[in-house]
Amino acid sequence: MSGRKIASAAVQNRTQTPFWNWIRNKLLAVDRQKITPPPGLPTADGKAVYHNPLRFPNTQTTRSPDPPALPGGVHHKLADNYYLGRDGRRSVKAPVALYAGEEKGASKYAAIDGTPMEKPAVSANKGPEQNFGLEAPTPGFGYEWKRTISEELSTQQGDGELRRLERFDRYLKA
């Protein structure tokens, strides 16, 4: 690589003629009246500054960034780089069926590795006590939790407002 490339500092940025600059500044309210505050944050002289949205080479970063330093993978080995081993499409397997319905109305459940299970692996969201023993995660949004006042901090245990709100806590009644 021939080093970093950047435009010369002698390059002039494009702009309009002074007449069109004056029209643009009037329409964009860059030069405002003394009684009107400037748009945005005022500069030291109290005026607003027009920022040209065009990008020019001398205002941008270099065009030759450093090459990325990526760690080598299976494709970077010189030997023992067999095509079938590095082809990602060959490592894809069919999804394992966790549930299979039968004609008689009974259903079969299987673990992630395919071994049959006696109890269902996918069930309704019952809470951490019943779901953490399953091999498959429970689908859905929730995490049902139980709350007891004895496990709260001392500030919550003595709070009268929380005591009043306990009437509406559906987890306390269960």
UniProtKB/TrEMBL annotation:
It is a peripheral membrane protein. It is found in: Mitochondrion inner membrane. Keywords: Acetylation, Electron transport, Membrane, Mitochondrion, Mitochondrion inner membrane, Respiratory chain, Transport. InterPro entries: NDUA7. GO terms for biological process: mitochondrial electron transport, NADH to ubiquinone. It comes from the Eukaryota. Its main location: mitochondrion. One of its GO terms (cellular component) is mitochondrial inner membrane. Accessory subunit of the mitochondrial membrane respiratory chain NADH dehydrogenase (Complex I), that is believed not to be involved in catalysis. Complex I functions in the transfer of electrons from NADH to the respiratory chain. The immediate electron acceptor for the enzyme is believed to be ubiquinone. Belongs to the complex I NDUFA7 subunit family. Complex I is composed of 45 different subunits. This is NADH dehydrogenase [ubiquinone] 1 alpha subcomplex subunit 7. It comes from Steinernema hermaphroditum. The lineage of its organism: Eukaryota, Metazoa, Ecdysozoa, Nematoda, Chromadorea.
